[in-house]
Amino acid sequence: MSENQNPTHSIELTREATNRYVARNAAGVEVTFGRGEDLMSPVELLLAAIAGCSSIDVDTVTSRSSEPTEFRVEASGSKVAEENGGSRLEDLNLSFNLSFPDDDGGRKAAGLVDRLVKLSHDKYCAVSRTVEHGTPVEFDTEVTTGGETTTTDQ
């Protein structure tokens, strides 16, 4: 499925304008996002990452038997305010809507979907598993003003 090795993943984010950013991976692939009518928000990107990770797991296996005639996944979550003034998502949900041809390959692929979704959730999708396990996020900063640099770890 999608995560078979222990590679280090990273992206570089750069600012294009106020509330507009580009994330770029080592291969040079870019995603523009931020806050604005023409942009996907960071929260929407998180939902897309969860849906995409599980979709890859399901699609990789089912498409060996049959090409889907429809492959649509809706990812949703509710943003909640916390007592400390912060916010987070809860009630995360993926809804898979798949269709396959009415032939032997299509029926075989359709018969695999529930098991593959469960395997993705329980074992293979590093994105949803990271969210569910609550992996800590560390921060460090380096800020330069007038040639003087300040570095901190948080």
Automatic annotation (TrEMBL):
Highest taxon, organism lineage: Bacteria
Start and end residues of each stretch annotated as Disordered: 64-86
Gene3D superfamilies attached to this UniProt entry: 3.30.300.20
PANTHER family: PROTEIN YHFA
Name recorded for this polypeptide: Oxidoreductase
Lineage, opening ranks: Bacteria, Bacillati, Actinomycetota, Actinomycetes, Micrococcales
